[in-house]
Design goal:
It is built from eight helices and two strands. It has about 130 residues and is mainly α.
Length: about 130
């Protein structure tokens, strides 16, 4: 069983109306910012990667379940600065890099940078 399936609070958040509304508005914002393309693909494209694919999913940069309290989980879930619009391929890769839900691995690499950006209210425009 995957770790996210073990946490009923996580399930409550991602199936709730508040998350669905935020997800929809974030996808609309991404359509305006990036033409609806995957934010990771766009970033990779500018450094010589393949053509970007359309974003179909919204990913939490810092995993919701990395929080220790319900209040902190909700703060991560509903923080627009903790979201990134991804294609399904990049979304799968993001979760693979996170170790399929292992929170200790989620704090490595550029996740630490993203945590600091969120804490400081900074977000790279168009990425």
């Amino acid at each position: 069983m995957r770790e996210t399936e073990k946490n009923p609070e996580y399930r409550r958040i991602i199936t709730g109306k508040r998350w669905q509304k935020l997800r929809g508005s974030y996808m609309l914002l991404n359509a305006i910012r990036n033409g609806g393309f995957c934010e990771q693909c766009v970033k990779d494209y500018f450094v010589g990667g393949p053509r970007p694919r359309k974003a179909t999913e919204v990913h939490h940069i810092v995993p919701i379940e990395s929080a220790t309290s319900r209040q902190d989980m909700e703060a991560l879930a509903y923080d627009e600065n903790n979201l990134i619009a991804l294609c399904s391929e990049c979304h799968h890769e993001a979760h693979r890099r996170l170790g399929n839900g292992h929170i200790k691995e989620a704090i490595e690499d550029d996740i630490t940078r993203r945590i600091n950006e969120i804490k400081n209210g900074i977000r790279e425009e168009g990425v």
